[in-house]
């Protein structure tokens, strides 16, 4: 199967008035529903849906839309299948590692229902191609299954400018959210979030983790809302935010404020009349990969190779691991001292005392009053940079003088460049 690398106009779906005998048998259990029936099914087979992101949300969404008989599915994702995806991205298998997610998802969907037209797009959604996808009338409904803020703004603005309803969901850790934007006079994403959140406050699955079944649940709810819109049944989520807590297995619904007349894109006098640079607008990359912060100067950081040399010379120092305990339980360097970043930031007394004791121990071994060298490490080198800043604030006041430096790239760089046997997660 060829992957659609460029956006091109596809022929419209056939305006059919009857179902074949095979379709009647395939969809018989939902045809029996008065809420759907034959006419509702015909509306489904005439509907095209663009799925932005073939990951934890997009996989169950695409699976159930195909099973229900949606006429065309556009499956868009720039990424390739990785081993860490498989606990939640259920359309992909071990045999698809390294294959584009769009192609992998399309192959799985075609195995499930070969009558559904699947169009895989192995590309990044950008301001240059988003409107072409939607304005060309190839897709009637858009489902946002992305995992980053710039793409959310891009998809929202493109849907508003092209007049497409947007079914949006998110999942992180053990919680999920769902709403429908730009539908029946309801708000768009910018109505609720006119200003993007600070970059350092945004967490994704790569950073914060996710229980695989949670995006599965939310992806199924996305599919439900798409099917309701496609079959002309009003979505109940166009002015509601559905929130799911997996720990308590509870749902709650929050009524959203209506469309804002002053909204920059859907308001009465919009200032956003075309798509823009959303990475610049949000101050972050349009990716669900672990973000890379750059908070320190070059002389405040060392490479994993430089740190390996320090270990090899047996130079006295402290290796401070600032990851949460749940990550330390996965793997750690045996000679590290674990004090989570949150404990440093909150000046947690027992952990500060632990650090003081370790500094005093090293000073006695060094038999000097020189500042103790502290090398700070985390998973990817982000929290460790924040910790260096905190230690610099504390040095000479709350703790003895120290010289703190961040280990660039953290433990994942250690695993990739120094010790291939060290676990990656």
TrEMBL record:
ATP binds at residues 56, 77, 84-88, 101, 147-148. SMART domains: RHOD (SM00450). InterPro entries: MOCS3/Uba4, Rhodanese-like_dom, Rhodanese-like_dom_sf, ThiF/MoeB/HesA, ThiF_NAD_FAD-bd, Ubiquitin-activating_enz. Its EC number is 2.7.7.80, 2.8.1.11. GO terms for biological process: Mo-molybdopterin cofactor biosynthetic process; protein urmylation; tRNA wobble position uridine thiolation. It holds the Pfam family Rhodanese. Residues 317-423 form the Rhodanese domain. Pathway: tRNA modification; 5-methoxycarbonylmethyl-2-thiouridine-tRNA biosynthesis; Cofactor biosynthesis; molybdopterin biosynthesis. The active site is at 205 (glycyl thioester intermediate), 378 (cysteine persulfide intermediate). The keyword Nucleotide-binding applies. Keywords: ATP-binding, Cytoplasm, Disulfide bond, Metal-binding, Molybdenum cofactor biosynthesis, Multifunctional enzyme, Nucleotide-binding, Transferase, tRNA processing, Zinc. One of its GO terms (cellular component) is cytosol. It catalyses: [molybdopterin-synthase sulfur-carrier protein]-C-terminal Gly-Gly + ATP + H(+) = [molybdopterin-synthase sulfur-carrier protein]-C-terminal Gly-Gly-AMP + diphosphate; [molybdopterin-synthase sulfur-carrier protein]-C-terminal Gly-Gly-AMP + S-sulfanyl-L-cysteinyl-[cysteine desulfurase] + AH2 = [molybdopterin-synthase sulfur-carrier protein]-C-terminal-Gly-aminoethanethioate + L-cysteinyl-[cysteine desulfurase] + A + AMP + 2 H(+). The keyword Cytoplasm applies. Plays a central role in 2-thiolation of mcm(5)S(2)U at tRNA wobble positions of cytosolic tRNA(Lys), tRNA(Glu) and tRNA(Gln). Also essential during biosynthesis of the molybdenum cofactor. Acts by mediating the C-terminal thiocarboxylation of sulfur carriers URM1 and MOCS2A. Its N-terminus first activates URM1 and MOCS2A as acyl-adenylates (-COAMP), then the persulfide sulfur on the catalytic cysteine is transferred to URM1 and MOCS2A to form thiocarboxylation (-COSH) of their C-terminus. This is Adenylyltransferase and sulfurtransferase MOCS3. It comes from Scleropages formosus. The lineage of its organism: Eukaryota, Metazoa, Chordata, Craniata, Vertebrata.
């Amino acid at each position: 199967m060829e992957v659609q690398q460029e956006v091109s106009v596809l022929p419209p779906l056939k305006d059919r008035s009857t179902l074949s005998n095979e379709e009647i048998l395939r969809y018989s259990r939902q045809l029996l529903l008065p809420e759907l029936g034959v006419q509702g099914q015909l509306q489904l087979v005439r509907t095209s849906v663009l799925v932005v992101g073939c990951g934890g949300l997009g996989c169950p969404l695409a699976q159930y839309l195909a099973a229900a008989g949606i006429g065309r599915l556009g499956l868009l994702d720039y990424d390739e299948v990785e081993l860490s995806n498989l606990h939640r991205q259920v359309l992909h298998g071990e045999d698809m590692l390294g294959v584009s997610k769009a192609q992998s998802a399309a192959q799985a969907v075609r195995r499930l229902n070969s009558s559904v037209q699947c169009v895989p797009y192995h590309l990044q959604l950008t301001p240059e191609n988003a409107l072409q996808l939607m304005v060309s009338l190839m897709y009637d409904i858009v489902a946002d299954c992305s995992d980053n803020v710039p793409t959310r703004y891009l998809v929202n603005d493109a849907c508003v400018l092209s007049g497409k309803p947007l079914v949006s969901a998110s999942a992180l850790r053990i919680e999920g959210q769902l709403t429908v934007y730009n539908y029946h006079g309801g708000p768009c994403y910018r109505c609720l979030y006119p200003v993007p959140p600070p970059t350092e406050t945004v967490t994704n699955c790569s950073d914060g983790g996710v229980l695989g079944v949670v995006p599965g649940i939310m992806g199924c709810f996305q599919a439900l809302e798409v099917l309701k819109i496609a079959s002309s049944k009003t979505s109940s989520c166009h002015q509601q935010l559905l929130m799911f807590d997996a720990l308590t297995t509870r749902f709650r619904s929050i009524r959203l404020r209506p469309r804002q007349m002053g909204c920059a894109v859907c308001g009465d006098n919009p200032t956003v009349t075309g798509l823009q640079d959303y990475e610049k607008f949000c101050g972050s990359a349009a990716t669900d990969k672990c973000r890379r912060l750059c908070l320190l100067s070059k002389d405040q950081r060392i490479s994993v190779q430089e740190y390996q040399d320090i270990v090899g010379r047996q130079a006295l120092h402290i290796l401070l691991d600032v990851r949460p305990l749940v990550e330390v339980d996965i793997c750690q360097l045996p000679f590290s001292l674990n004090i989570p970043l949150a404990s440093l930031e909150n000046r947690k007394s027992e952990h500060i005392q632990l650090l003081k004791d370790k500094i005093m121990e090293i000073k006695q071994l060094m038999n000097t009053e020189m500042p103790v060298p502290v090398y700070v490490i985390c998973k990817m080198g982000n929290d460790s940079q924040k910790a260096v800043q905190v230690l610099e604030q504390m040095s000479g006041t709350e703790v003895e003088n120290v010289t703190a430096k961040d280990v660039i790239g953290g433990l994942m760089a250690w695993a990739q460049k120094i010790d291939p046997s060290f676990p990656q997660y």
